[in-house]
Amino acid sequence: MRGVGIVKGETAMKRILVACLALVALLAVVPSLQAAAPPGPGQQMPDFELPLPKDGADRNYLGLTGRLFSFGGGSFRVAETKAQAVIFQVFSMYCPHCQKDAPNMNTLYNLIEGSQRARGKVKIIGVGAGNNPYEVGVFKKKYQVPFPLFPDGDFIIHKKLGDVRTPYFIVIRIMPDGSHRVVYSKLGSFGDPARFLDDVLTMTGI
């Protein structure tokens, strides 16, 4: 009887081993079951929506004036921004690097708005990974951020972007037909704002 028990045990172990090998093979051929990776140059942004800003100035900046905010809210996709390029920043109010980089972001915004070549064509959007609306509001007020910031308290967008560390920057080129492609995707500060803007204009062909 003990021999039968040993055989049954070996059979169960073999079944478990086969199941594990099958799962590994499945993960290797089904990318959707693996962890997401940040979108790289030539790719598209993952599909997600941002809430329509309550602030009319933010809606106007993004070219969403035709979408009036209502009690029920509303949403839009990054590629629906009225621009030729969008600089997308993933930040966190608790990230010391993001806090240190905030003045550079404001300088970049002012350079864009003061440039005949870039104004109205290049926009900036920030998303606070793990930050709720209150936390995003605190960050925006403390650092006097002039461009729209959005909360991502449940890390939904953050996960779709590959659980990137902060700050993370993605630049997308929006084409006349509404399609878009990523031209820049990198972790960390971009350095000199003027040089980065020149790089963005070169990468996007604006």
Give the % helix. 25-40%
Which overall shape is indicated by the principal axes computed on the Cα atoms?
A: globular
Mean pLDDT: 87
Strand content: 15-25%
Order of helices and strands: HEHEEHEHEHEEH
**Architecture (CATH level 2) name of the largest domain:** 3-Layer(aba) Sandwich
What distance separates the N and C termini? 80 Å
Could you give the count of β-strands?
A: 7
What is the CATH domain class of the largest domain?
A: Alpha Beta
CATH superfamily of the largest domain: Glutaredoxin
User: What order do the strands of the largest sheet run in, or round the barrel if closed?
Assistant: 5-4-3-6-7
Structural class: alpha/beta
Task: Provide the gyration radius in Å.
Answer: 22 Å
- Stated plainly, the CATH topology of the largest domain is called Glutaredoxin
- Tally of separate helices: 6
Q: Catalogue the unreliable spans.
A: 1-7, 23-34
Largest sheet: 5 strands, mixed
Number of spatially distinct domains: 2
